[in-house]
Design brief:
Ribosomal Protein L4, Chain: A, two-stranded antiparallel sheet
Length: about 230
């Protein structure tokens, strides 16, 4: 059984949590993980870059000089690309329908592989709870990170989300519902550089890969195991 270290908010280790080996021992294809990360970054693009051609620029269309008699090459318009203020040749245009579809099972398997790598490298820790944060306090969270030598590293905090279950004729769906349970934690982390917070079901593989260390609550860890463990095997 793999184990994860568990800490309190003051930075003291309070125990360990056992993780099923079947969840950690996953062997996903490296090319699949790369395709998943590339698809995430591609879907994050706005595709809104736009340039104007010679027919679109607000410029005079008169000839810069007469056609013959000067010994110069003939020119048709001041809106031509070779003139200052002229149109752009083959410039970017807004694109549509550029979304790259990500297979749901591949997405879960890729996230599970990335999490397993963090766990094997001992870069995944569990925090007992955030009940001690009765109010937003950046100093407390900065002290927690300093106690664990995470002050200058990228850290991703994961919390469990509230789920509502909807049953349809074909399957059972779970939808994440907004909750202010971690409101104080988010406010305590937002001014600390290189630190981010996300709900466990909303975390992407890019967020996991970018973080040096992941700090998850016990509830978030249970949600990850249920979401990525059982369903991946179906």
């Amino acid at each position: 059984m793999a184990t994860l270290k568990k800490y309190q908010l003051n930075g003291e280790q309070s125990g360990e949590i056992a993780i099923d080996d079947a969840f950690v021992n996953v062997n996903a294809n490296s090319q699949m993980i790369k395709d998943y990360i590339v698809a995430l970054r591609t879907n994050a693009r706005q595709w809104s870059a736009n340039t104007k051609g010679r027919s679109e620029v607000n410029h005079s269309t008169q000839k810069p000089h007469r056609q013959k008699g000067l010994g110069r090459s003939r020119q048709g318009s001041l809106a031509a690309p070779q003139y200052r203020g002229g149109g752009r040749v083959f410039g970017p245009k807004p694109k549509f329908d550029q979304h790259v579809r990500i297979n749901r099972k591949e997405r879960r398997l890729a996230i599970r592989q990335l999490l397993a790598e963090k766990m094997k490298a001992e870069n995944f820790i569990v925090i007992e709870g955030t009940d001690g944060l009765n109010a937003p306090k950046t100093k407390s969270m900065a002290g927690f990170l300093k106690a664990l030598n995470l002050s200058n590293k990228r850290v991703l905090f994961l919390g469990e989300s509230c789920l509502e279950v909807f049953k349809t004729e074909l399957r059972e769906e779970k939808i994440t519902v907004y909750s202010d349970k971690y409101h104080n934690l988010q406010l305590s982390l937002r001014n600390i550089p290189r630190v981010a917070f996300s709900l466990a079901p909303n975390a992407s593989g890019y967020d996991v890969a970018l973080a040096n260390t992941i700090v998850a609550t016990e509830g978030a860890l249970a949600q990850l195991q249920e979401w990525l463990g059982e369903r991946t095997q179906q």
